[in-house]
Amino acid sequence: MQYQQDIVNHYHSIIELYYKEAELSDENKRKENQAATKIQQWYRMHVKRIKYLKIRYNTIYIQKFAKGYLARMLMKRNSDNRFNERNLKYFSYQATQIQRYFRGFHYRKYYLNWATRKEYLSFLKRKNETFLEELKRVEQEEAQQLRIRQEQLARTEFESLARNLHHLSSTKSISGIYNRPFGNRDIVFDMDVESHLKIVFHSNYEWEKSQQMSRYTRTKKLSMQTKLKPLK
Predict the structure, then answer these.
(1) Per the confidence metrics, is the pTM higher than 0.70?
(2) Whole-angstrom Cα distance, residue 87 to residue 93?
(3) Beta-bridge partners for 192
(4) Coiled-coil ranges per the record (predicted)?
């Protein structure tokens, strides 16, 4: 009863205290809401971060094993390829050696005949000798033709020079400079120069004489035709 009496006595003070606390709570409500929101934000971030880190760790762990497996498989494949290439080279070399020895054996047994080989070498020797003789003959012919052409060219040049040197030849009263009474005479083309000068002079003189006669004959015929021209 005493407790109830105390409550009744302090009723007004309790009501006033309640309203004061309600007013204070209304004033702090905004701050409390912001604080609660901040706490929720950090808590949610913490939860999400833990979840993200766990997923990231598991992903990295799976990638590590996957990359290791792929690297081992790649290394094994490369190792197998190198091993196969090495074996292929080795067996190819061995096969080549076997083929070489077998071909040598087969050729020596079935194709290599000493008599046939000797006859073939003799044939090659005769053929080479014939070819060398033919080459020498062709070389001699070409050298002879070259000498003939050079001699003809020299003769032509000598005759062209000697055609204008007839005044140096000998006469009945005076000997020419090439017809010396003492010493050896100058020989050109198996003949002394004096004889060459006379031959060239006579041939040139006969040619000019024939040319003059032909011109005289043509002129005379032309004049006769002019004189015998009939009257109109």
Answers:
(1) no
(2) 10
(3) 187
(4) 121-156
Q: Distance (Å, rounded) from C-alpha 195 to C-alpha 203?
A: 12
Place of tokens 């083929």: 99
Cα separation values, 205 from 156, 175, 201, 219, Å: 17, 21, 6, 21
Residue matched to tokens 């990359």: 67
SS3 176: coil
For the chain, how big is the Rg over CA atoms in Å? Answer: 68
At 5, which amino acid appears? Q
Residues 197/168, Cβ–Cβ less than 8 Å: yes
DSSP state of 168: G
What is the spatial distance between Cα 215 and Cα 209, in angstroms, rounded to a whole number? 10
Tell me how far apart the alpha carbons of residues 225 and 75 are, in angstroms, rounded to a whole number.
Answer: 120
216 membership: H or E segment, kind and range: helix 193-227
The full DSSP string for 133-150 is HHHHHHHHHHHHHHHHHH
**Residue 198: partners with Cβ closer than 8 Å, 6 or more residues away:** 169
Task: Please report, in tens digits, the pLDDT of each residue of the chain (232 residues total).
Answer: 555 566 556 656 666 666 666 666 666 777 778 888 888 999 999 999 999 999 999 999 999 999 999 999 998 888 888 889 999 999 999 999 999 999 988 887 777 777 777 888 899 999 999 999 999 999 999 999 998 888 778 777 766 666 666 555 666 666 655 666 665 666 656 566 666 666 666 665 554 445 555 554 555 555 555 544 444 4
